[in-house]
Design brief:
Rossmann fold; two-stranded antiparallel sheet; 14 helices; 35% helix; triacylglycerol lipase activity; AB_hydrolase_fold
């Protein structure tokens, strides 16, 4: 059994032939459940090595073979068909798709081979666009840091609850079903360390980009076909999608990626830390709205970069150390419930802000700087979206990503949402509303790129 760098304080979790209109109903049902659940509302001590506890019925699937088999990135290490939790019977299988859980070779932030899991969904509806059926790589938004939060588990369970607060729903199911309704195949990565032994390295540019690009390779290996593809991601997924877009040229040049949607991407963590308040709320991608997200990030940094462990240990007070250890084994709902409305400075020594902590350490500054997206050039057109009322991912650094890519000569369309009302500041509502408002048009944009239509660009006058 593989070892990892998880904290020994981690807690164990127990077990727990239609038309497009039909698929639309399924997708709306998924989204309604997700919205209802979302509104119901260890890095600290340099984690010791230990064995991850995975206690779902599919636990063995998520334990990578040791040693890891040789092969290229994207090689299928393991696969198994499974029934979707939300589906209808059809002539050719389940509607909206036949689902396969996959484990594939990828590379961590240091380029070391690793195993990553995910889900491949083959739609039962036909593709009516030009050319072969396309593939959309969905980079999921923040799910949490516990192994039970892996999106591939959500497709089979739909809803997970472990008392008292560990409730979880894979809201990205609605994203996948919307794409499947268009006849597009979908592959969704779990990311490095989510589901599999290892710490999930939240907002890590390289690890996330590798997992996304290798998921496309894995889907092609599984089906034995190469095809046009595109990438979709929002929030954490927006950052992962953006990182994949600019790394594809060097990491996976053989892939036929036609376009990328990056919604609310956390492209510059340091800038996000210094962002002014939005409607009275400090954006929470790195410790504002929900300080538990800072715990996710620091846990990942400590696991990936040993040189910053002493810095992180010194930066968190006893409450912060407990918080970081707790969130390492929770999903996003529990993390938010436990930490929302609590200033991040309650968890730091001397009441320092995340920006002050980073700026006080050259080592941590270097690590945060490595996560900066926008210094390379995407191979294909990109649609970036953000809201001025986003209380999780601040808009100014979203716009800066567009400006950076435009300066490199990329084809970029930046969509700024200003009409969404500033509802319930400090709750993440502004962030959720942007996701709901932008998804359908993002899928339309991807369909146009896959159809070969010229991509628009507003680089000359970014909003």
């Amino acid at each position: 059994m593989s070892t990892d760098t998880r904290s020994p304080l981690r807690r164990n979790h127990g077990v727990r032939g239609r038309t497009p209109r039909t698929l639309a109903v399924l997708s709306v049902a998924v989204l309604a459940i997700a919205t209802a659940l979302s509104t119901a509302g260890p890095a600290a001590s340099a984690p010791d090595a230990g064995v991850s506890s995975v206690s779902s019925p599919d636990a063995d699937f998520y334990l990578p073979p040791s040693p890891l088999p040789e092969g290229a990135p994207g090689k299928i290490l393991r696969s198994e068909r499974f029934p979707l939790a939300l589906a209808l019977p059809g002539v050719d299988g389940q509607v909206p798709a036949n689902a396969t859980r996959i484990m594939y070779r990828s590379a961590d932030t240091h380029g070391t081979p690793t195993a990553v899991t995910g889900t491949y969904l083959e739609p039962t509806l036909p593709w009516n666009g030009p050319g072969p059926r396309p593939l959309i790589a969905v980079a999921p938004g923040t799910q949490g840091q516990g192994d039970q939060c892996a999106p591939s588990k959500g497709f089979a369970e739909l809803v997970h609850y472990n008392p008292p607060l560990d409730g979880w729903f894979s809201y990205e199911t609605s994203t996948a079903y919307s794409l499947l309704a268009r006849g597009m195949a979908v592959v969704m990565t779990d990311y490095h360390g989510l589901g599999t032994p290892a710490m999930h390295d939240y907002v890590n540019r390289l690890a996330e980009a590798h997992a996304v690009l290798d998921s496309i390779r894995a889907a092609e290996a599984l089906t034995g076909t190469t095809r046009p593809s595109a990438i979709f991601g929002y929030s954490q997924g927006g950052g992962a999608a953006a990182a994949a877009a600019e790394l594809q040229r060097s990491y996976a040049p053989e892939l036929d990626v036609r376009g990328t949607y990056a919604g609310a991407p956390p492209a510059d963590l340091r800038a996000a830390m210094a962002s002014p308040a939005v409607n009275g709320a400090v954006p929470g991608v790195i410790g504002g709205t929900a300080p538990g997200l800072l715990g996710y990030a620091l846990n990942g940094f400590a696991a990936d970069y040993p040189e910053v462990r002493p810095v992180i240990d010194a930066a968190l007070n006893p409450a912060g150390k407990t918080m970081a250890a707790d969130v390492a084994d929770t999903c996003i709902a529990e993390t938010v419930i436990r930490t929302m409305f609590r200033p991040v400075t309650l968890f730091t020594t001397g009441g320092r802000t995340p920006a002050e902590i980073v700026d006080s350490s050259p080592e941590l500054t270097a690590v945060v700087d490595q996560q900066r997206i926008g210094r390379l050039t995407p191979n294909a057109p990109v649609l970036i979206a953000g809201s001025t009322n986003d209380d999780v991912v601040p808009y100014p650094q979203v716009r800066q990503l567009a400006a950076d890519w435009c300066a490199h000569g990329a084809t970029v369309q930046l969509e700024q949402t200003t009409w969404l009302p500033p509802l319930l500041p400090s709750t993440g509502t502004g962030h959720i509303l942007e996701f709901l408002a932008a998804t359908a048009s993002a899928h339309d944009w991807l369909a146009q790129r896959l159809a070969g239509k010229p991509a628009p660009s507003n680089c000359s006058a970014l909003p």
